[in-house]
Amino acid sequence: MSGGKDSEVRDNKKIVRAAGGAVVAADGRVLMMMRRGMWDLPKGHIEPGESERECAAREVCEECGLNPALLTVGPELARTIHLSAHDEEKHTVWFRMDYTGDPARVEPQTEEEITSLEWVSPTEALRRASTSYSTIRAVIEKLILQI
Questions:
Q1: What residues have CB less than 8 Å from 51, skipping those under 6 apart?
Q2: With pLDDT > 70 as the criterion, what percentage of the chain qualifies?
Q3: Structural domain boundaries, residue 29
Q4: pLDDT value, residue 3
Q5: Domain membership flag for residue 79
Q6: What is the CATH number of the domain that holds 50?
Q7: Which value, to the nearest 10 degrees, does the dihedral of the CA atoms of residues 25, 77, 4, 134 take?
Q8: Residue 95: predicted pLDDT
Q9: Arithmetic mean of pLDDT over the chain
Q10: How many other CB atoms are there within 10 angstroms of residue 94's CB atom?
Q11: Does the residue 61 lie in any domain?
Q12: Out of 24, 35, 78, 97, which could bridge 40 as a Cys pair, Cβ 3.0 to 4.6 Å?
Protein backbone atom coordinates (compact mmCIF):
# COMPACT_ATOMS: atom_id res chain seq x y z
CA MET A 1 0.00 0.00 0.00
CA SER A 2 2.95 2.41 0.02
CA GLY A 3 2.94 5.32 -2.41
CA GLY A 4 1.14 5.00 -5.71
CA LYS A 5 -2.56 5.66 -6.05
CA ASP A 6 -4.19 7.24 -3.06
CA SER A 7 -7.65 5.92 -3.90
CA GLU A 8 -9.52 3.49 -6.11
CA VAL A 9 -13.10 2.37 -6.60
CA ARG A 10 -14.22 -1.12 -5.57
CA ASP A 11 -17.81 -2.36 -5.28
CA ASN A 12 -19.04 1.22 -5.92
CA LYS A 13 -17.13 2.48 -2.87
CA LYS A 14 -14.17 4.79 -3.16
CA ILE A 15 -11.19 3.21 -1.39
CA VAL A 16 -9.01 5.85 0.27
CA ARG A 17 -5.53 5.06 1.55
CA ALA A 18 -4.40 6.86 4.69
CA ALA A 19 -1.71 6.73 7.36
CA GLY A 20 -1.44 7.99 10.90
CA GLY A 21 0.34 7.64 14.17
CA ALA A 22 0.13 7.06 17.87
CA VAL A 23 2.67 9.46 19.36
CA VAL A 24 4.52 8.78 22.61
CA ALA A 25 6.47 11.49 24.48
CA ALA A 26 9.78 10.84 26.22
CA ASP A 27 7.92 10.56 29.55
CA GLY A 28 5.64 7.80 28.16
CA ARG A 29 2.50 9.90 27.71
CA VAL A 30 0.37 9.43 24.59
CA LEU A 31 -0.91 12.28 22.41
CA MET A 32 -4.66 12.26 21.85
CA MET A 33 -6.81 14.75 19.97
CA MET A 34 -10.41 15.82 20.23
CA ARG A 35 -11.95 15.93 16.75
CA ARG A 36 -15.69 16.37 16.16
CA GLY A 37 -16.43 15.52 19.79
CA MET A 38 -14.51 12.21 19.81
CA TRP A 39 -11.04 11.26 21.02
CA ASP A 40 -8.95 10.42 17.99
CA LEU A 41 -5.43 10.03 16.63
CA PRO A 42 -3.87 12.00 13.76
CA LYS A 43 -4.14 10.53 10.28
CA GLY A 44 -4.73 11.58 6.69
CA HIS A 45 -4.73 10.68 3.01
CA ILE A 46 -1.58 9.40 1.37
CA GLU A 47 -0.50 11.79 -1.36
CA PRO A 48 0.59 10.45 -4.78
CA GLY A 49 4.22 9.33 -4.58
CA GLU A 50 4.26 9.47 -0.79
CA SER A 51 5.08 6.40 1.31
CA GLU A 52 2.89 5.32 4.22
CA ARG A 53 5.58 6.38 6.70
CA GLU A 54 6.06 9.77 5.05
CA CYS A 55 2.32 10.37 5.09
CA ALA A 56 1.95 9.35 8.73
CA ALA A 57 4.75 11.68 9.83
CA ARG A 58 3.44 14.58 7.72
CA GLU A 59 -0.13 14.22 8.97
CA VAL A 60 0.90 13.95 12.63
CA CYS A 61 3.07 17.06 12.34
CA GLU A 62 0.40 19.03 10.44
CA GLU A 63 -2.50 18.08 12.69
CA CYS A 64 -0.62 18.46 15.97
CA GLY A 65 1.98 21.13 15.26
CA LEU A 66 4.91 18.86 16.11
CA ASN A 67 8.46 19.48 14.92
CA PRO A 68 9.20 16.80 12.28
CA ALA A 69 12.90 16.77 13.19
CA LEU A 70 11.95 15.54 16.68
CA LEU A 71 9.53 12.82 15.56
CA THR A 72 10.66 9.25 14.88
CA VAL A 73 8.35 6.89 13.00
CA GLY A 74 8.66 3.46 14.57
CA PRO A 75 7.06 0.10 13.85
CA GLU A 76 3.69 -0.44 12.26
CA LEU A 77 0.99 -0.92 14.90
CA ALA A 78 -2.08 -1.86 12.89
CA ARG A 79 -4.04 -1.59 9.66
CA THR A 80 -7.67 -0.57 9.97
CA ILE A 81 -10.63 -0.11 7.65
CA HIS A 82 -13.63 2.12 8.31
CA LEU A 83 -16.35 3.95 6.40
CA SER A 84 -15.87 7.70 6.39
CA ALA A 85 -18.60 10.32 6.61
CA HIS A 86 -18.46 10.55 2.80
CA ASP A 87 -19.23 6.81 2.40
CA GLU A 88 -15.61 6.14 1.46
CA GLU A 89 -13.83 3.04 2.68
CA LYS A 90 -10.70 4.32 4.41
CA HIS A 91 -7.76 1.92 4.71
CA THR A 92 -5.35 3.31 7.31
CA VAL A 93 -1.92 2.09 8.37
CA TRP A 94 -0.88 3.18 11.86
CA PHE A 95 2.63 3.61 13.22
CA ARG A 96 4.06 4.09 16.68
CA MET A 97 5.91 7.40 16.83
CA ASP A 98 8.26 8.76 19.45
CA TYR A 99 8.50 12.51 20.06
CA THR A 100 11.51 14.04 21.81
CA GLY A 101 10.30 17.65 21.60
CA ASP A 102 8.59 19.73 24.26
CA PRO A 103 5.13 18.18 24.79
CA ALA A 104 3.75 21.59 25.76
CA ARG A 105 4.42 22.87 22.24
CA VAL A 106 1.51 21.40 20.31
CA GLU A 107 -0.99 23.22 18.13
CA PRO A 108 -4.29 21.67 16.98
CA GLN A 109 -5.05 22.10 13.28
CA THR A 110 -8.44 23.75 13.72
CA GLU A 111 -9.28 23.63 10.00
CA GLU A 112 -9.36 19.83 10.44
CA GLU A 113 -11.89 20.28 13.28
CA ILE A 114 -9.31 19.40 15.94
CA THR A 115 -10.31 21.34 19.05
CA SER A 116 -7.73 20.14 21.57
CA LEU A 117 -4.60 18.04 22.00
CA GLU A 118 -3.68 16.33 25.27
CA TRP A 119 -0.77 14.18 26.41
CA VAL A 120 -2.20 11.48 28.68
CA SER A 121 -0.94 8.39 30.48
CA PRO A 122 -1.26 5.08 28.62
CA THR A 123 -4.02 4.08 31.07
CA GLU A 124 -5.92 7.30 30.35
CA ALA A 125 -5.39 6.85 26.59
CA LEU A 126 -6.97 3.40 26.84
CA ARG A 127 -9.87 4.80 28.88
CA ARG A 128 -10.51 7.56 26.34
CA ALA A 129 -10.20 5.13 23.44
CA SER A 130 -12.86 2.94 25.04
CA THR A 131 -15.42 5.67 24.23
CA SER A 132 -14.00 6.39 20.78
CA TYR A 133 -14.08 4.68 17.39
CA SER A 134 -13.32 0.94 17.39
CA THR A 135 -10.34 1.50 15.09
CA ILE A 136 -8.80 3.99 17.53
CA ARG A 137 -9.33 1.54 20.41
CA ALA A 138 -7.51 -1.16 18.42
CA VAL A 139 -4.54 1.12 17.73
CA ILE A 140 -4.26 2.27 21.36
CA GLU A 141 -4.50 -1.33 22.62
CA LYS A 142 -1.60 -2.34 20.34
CA LEU A 143 0.40 0.72 21.39
CA ILE A 144 -0.05 -0.07 25.10
CA LEU A 145 1.57 -3.46 24.51
CA GLN A 146 4.70 -1.68 23.25
CA ILE A 147 5.07 0.98 25.95
A1: 2, 3
A2: 91
A3: 10-144
A4: 42
A5: yes
A6: 3.90.79.10
A7: -100
A8: 98
A9: 92
A10: 26
A11: yes
A12: 35
